[in-house]
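Severity: low
Component: inverse-folding endpoint
Summary: output formatting inconsistent between runs
Steps to reproduce: submit the following structure tokens with default settings.
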């Protein structure tokens, strides 16, 4: 029902982001032509994102255990309880705000701020112009464009940070994956799905980190 879209392009872009120190991961999918995209389809995109996270986690784990000094093989599994995930559809104004680069450090949906300034910062050889260009390319790849029919769903709205008072926390709203544990200490977490019907791409992104 959902196929990975332009996998090599996404991998190249993710490699550039990783090299700069960005902490986001993402997957871009293409629904079949006869599929009507609704909330359940967005949840399928999150399943595809989990599969990518697990693949990346196992690759990292398998490389790590090649070192004879590594004595904790463990299981790099990532819990993923989607039945607990609550979908919050972003308004047109919120979509406008997350694409903004100006005043990017303000507000809970400061998307570029999280892209540009994770706890350990980022380093772009070309400075701010390169950072902005890569961000714009990433948004375009995700299908995150400011047009009336683009649908963006936030899957982590209202999560409570442990060490900070966040006014937007929603009582009783639970984290649905241990992937978010680090980010919920203080930096925050991201998990969005984006449907662009004109281009028929459905993407999912995630971020969670600490210092």
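Observed output (run 2 of 3):
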């Amino acid at each position: 029902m959902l196929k990975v879209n332009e996998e090599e392009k996404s991998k190249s872009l993710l490699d550039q982001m990783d090299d700069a120190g960005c902490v986001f991961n993402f997957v871009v999918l293409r629904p079949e032509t006869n599929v009507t995209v609704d909330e359940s389809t967005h949840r399928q995109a999150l399943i595809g994102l989990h599969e990518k996270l697990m693949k990346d986690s196992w690759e990292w784990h398998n490389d790590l255990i090649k070192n004879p000094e590594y004595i904790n093989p463990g299981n790099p599994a990532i819990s993923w309880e989607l039945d607990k995930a609550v979908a919050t559809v972003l308004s047109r104004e919120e979509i406008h705000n997350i694409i903004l680069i100006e005043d990017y450090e303000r507000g809970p949906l400061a998307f570029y701020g999280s892209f540009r300034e994770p706890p350990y910062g980022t380093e772009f050889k070309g400075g701010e112009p390169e950072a902005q260009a890569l961000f714009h390319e990433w948004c375009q790849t995700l299908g995150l464009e400011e047009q009336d029919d683009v649908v963006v769903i936030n899957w982590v709205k209202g999560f409570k940070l442990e060490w900070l008072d966040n006014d937007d926390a929603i009582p009783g709203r639970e984290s649905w994956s241990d992937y978010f544990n680090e980010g919920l200490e203080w930096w925050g977490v991201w998990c969005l799905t984006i449907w662009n019907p004109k281009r028929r791409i459905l993407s999912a992104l995630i971020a969670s980190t600490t210092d």
